[in-house]
Amino acid sequence: MQITLPNLLDYAIDHGIAYQASTLNKDDVYCECPFCKEKDKSKFKLTINKQKNVFRCFICGKTGNTIHFMEWFEKKPRELIYKEMRQAAGIDEDSYQKRMEHKHPAERLTSAQLKLIQYVSRPVQIQQLPSEFKKKMNDQIWNEWSSYLTKMKRKALVHLMYCIQANHYTTGIEYIKTLSIELGEDITEEVLQAYSSGDTPPSWAEGAYHEVQQLFEMFKTIG
Predict the structure, then answer these.
(1) Running DSSP on this structure, what letter comes out for residue 52?
(2) E strand spans, 14-151
(3) N or C: at which end does the chain have fewer Cβ atoms within 10 angstroms?
(4) pLDDT at residue number 22
(5) pTM score
(6) C-alpha distances in angstroms, 42 versus 14, 45, 53, 73?
(7) In b/e form, how buried is each residue of 25-58, taking b as 16+ CB within 10 angstroms?
(8) What distance separates the 2 farthest-apart alpha carbons in the chain?
(9) Does residue 150 carry a pLDDT above 60?
(10) Edge to edge, what strands does the sheet with 46-49 contain?
């Protein structure tokens, strides 16, 4: 049994998102953005495309598909959302996890994660390849994802360090949580551990402090 994400517009309406009735019969339905902090400016500034199940807010810039909307709205990582959907569909979680254990790590990546590393969809031809070549292809995809994830952790750490130095710790943490949702993987703990590692940071975090100092000097020069 496979789980299916809900229709994005139906999900938004079911969760109390106000919409502009006059646009309900159009491809793009205008809704109130639940992510904007300035609610008075965001009235009906978020569009949901009924055909593509994608959204975009013209004020805060949030954009994505159904799972992105659900992650940000429910403030949950996508794996937890998928787990809850499996439970609702009556799928035994232990059996599901056992099946996943036998899969290559690359085969566990979601379509949204694959898009982040420029794979529009999971290459269909992989399943038709002999096992040896199938493994090589999956190894390549996994290496690309691992490199991308490392790059994003580094980016999050630099952002956190910069925010802390500018006395905006909360902003730094919010950025990491938002990035974790976009990645479909919670990197918060790893980033915080790297920040607290002192003189023995993980390899991906080496030189981050100096990078932050360079940023500060650059903005001082601009200012």
Answers:
(1) T
(2) 28-31, 46-49, 54-57, 63-65
(3) C
(4) 95
(5) 0.66
(6) 20, 5, 20, 16
(7) eeeebbbbbbbbeeeeebebbbbbbbeebbbbbe
(8) 60
(9) yes
(10) 28-31, 46-49, 54-57, 63-65
